[in-house]
Amino acid sequence: MLEYWQIVMEGQPESPRLLRQVRDIMRLHHYSIHTERSYVDWIKRYVEFHKMTCREDLADGERKIEAFLTDLAVRGKVAASTQNQAMNALVFLYKKVLAKPLDEVIDAVRADRKVNVPVVLTREEVSRIIAVMEGVPQLIVKLLYGSGLRVLDAVRVRVKDVDFAMKQVTVRSGKGEKDRFTTLPASLIPLLQNQLQRVKAYHEQDLAAGHGAVYLPYALERKYPCKCQSSLFTQGRLDARVARHGDSLSARSGSVNSED
Question: Rounded CA gap, 186 and 130, in Å?
């Protein structure tokens, strides 16, 4: 039996597998790795829900999408945001990948939208949380709180993007693929400088052992083949473990993954 994530168009073996095509188009348009994973997962669930085995089964998209979204709301009892995410993934599939616009109305049962009150910590509560932390985790949390960085922004920061003189951090390819500047608290400068000295030693050890290269986005690695080993371009160097051979930053997400 053909697995639902390996759909190919029968009679046209030259056609790429569906999910490979989805990933290729998303990467062409620079979607984030998280959006890519989410969309691929929803497309898998959609295909499995309708027990599709070939691309012809994707026809009549409006009715099939409507049935899938209704099932999510009625049986799955998902949140409205989750249902919207599934909808966006399937619209992307039909419009961008299959080039089949959805012209008819999709009248699915909508999940209830709840208004949640955010939980905001006071400055005293934040201070107490930071006080019980130590080492690199404490430094990263201070950077998140003091500079207003997202978690991925922090683990993707490169050495060259920290400007001690201007007391600012440059966030590259943040949310929406946008660059931005944010402030660097003066109290963090000596802590960051000390940490960067420590991990620079790890980086030099890695280079001596034939490792230590980092991911460069798009075609920069081909354009500047030596920059991937420059200490200025090292990524995620707030954590010394990232510099070791046993761990590496995911090329698209910036998360720490152990090598297989």
Answer: 17
Whether 55 maps to a domain, the answer reads: yes
**So what's the pLDDT on residue 198?**
85
The total of structural domains in the chain comes to 2
Query: What pLDDT shows up at residue 211?
Result: 73
* Segment 13-63, tens digit of pLDDT: 445 689 999 999 998 888 888 899 999 999 999 999 999 988 899 999 999
> Which residue type sits at 87?
M
Domain housing 17 = 1-116
For the cut 80, the answer to whether the pLDDT of residue 104 exceeds it is: yes
What gap in Å lies between CA 66 and CA 72, rounded to an integer?
Answer: 10
Burial of 258 (0-12, 13-18, 19+ CB in 10 A): exposed
Inter-residue contact 171 to 149 (CB < 8 Å): yes
Query: What does the angle CA 99 – CA 101 – CA 102 come to, to the nearest 5 degrees?
Result: 140
pLDDT score recorded for residue 225: 63
Q: Which residues of 171-203 are buried (b: 16+ CB within 10 A; e: fewer)?
A: bbbbeeeeeeeeebeeebeeebeebbeebbebb
Read off the CATH number of the domain in which 10 is found: 1.10.150.130
Please indicate, yes or no, whether residues 127 and 184 belong to a single structural domain of this protein. yes
Whether the predicted pLDDT of 12 surpasses 80: no
Write a three-state SS string for 166-197: CCEEEECCCHHHCCEEEECCHHHHHHHHHHHH
- Is the separation of the CB atoms in 79 and 111 below 8 Å? yes
